[in-house]
Amino acid sequence: QVQLVESGGGLVQAGGSLRLSCSASRRYDMGWFRQAPGKEREFVAAINWSGGITRYADSVKGRFTISRDNAKNTVSLQMNSLKPEDTAVYYCAARVYGSNYNYWGQGTQVTVSS
Questions:
Q1: Cβ 81 vs Cβ 30: under 8 Å
Q2: Each residue's pLDDT tens digit in the chain (114 positions)?
Q3: How many Cα atoms sit within 13 Å of 35 on the Cβ side?
Q4: Angle, CA 18 vertex, CA 85 and CA 61 arms, to 5°
Q5: Would you give the distance in Å from CA 90 to the centre of its chain?
Q6: Cα(62)–Cα(106) distance, integer angstroms
Q7: CA-CA distance, 64 to 69, in Å (whole number)?
Q8: Which residues does residue 92 pair with via DSSP β-bridges, in sequence order?
Q9: Residue 103 and residue 29: Cα distance in Å, rounded?
């Protein structure tokens, strides 16, 4: 079974940075999603199994970077220039190519103060 555990969340001031990490597997594409209070869960970033293809939501493009280390079975999300609107619970997720994201972590809270 795929088991995903996020880490690295916390409280940061606007303009600061955080780095989130998650377990991963070379069998799967990996993604990051977030959910703010009162809002639907939204896509943030994704990376394919080899790490050669990435994509980002427009709201985070240029500020966030997704990467993976298959030797360590980890996926990371480097978040720079954080804004208060980035405040949310962040989830890592995994999928087999062509499928939905079927595997989800428990989520980690990111809070950006103004």
A1: no
A2: 678 999 999 999 999 999 999 987 777 999 999 999 999 999 999 999 888 899 999 999 999 999 998 788 899 999 999 999 999 999 999 998 788 999 999 999 999 999
A3: 10
A4: 55
A5: 6
A6: 26
A7: 17
A8: 32
A9: 11
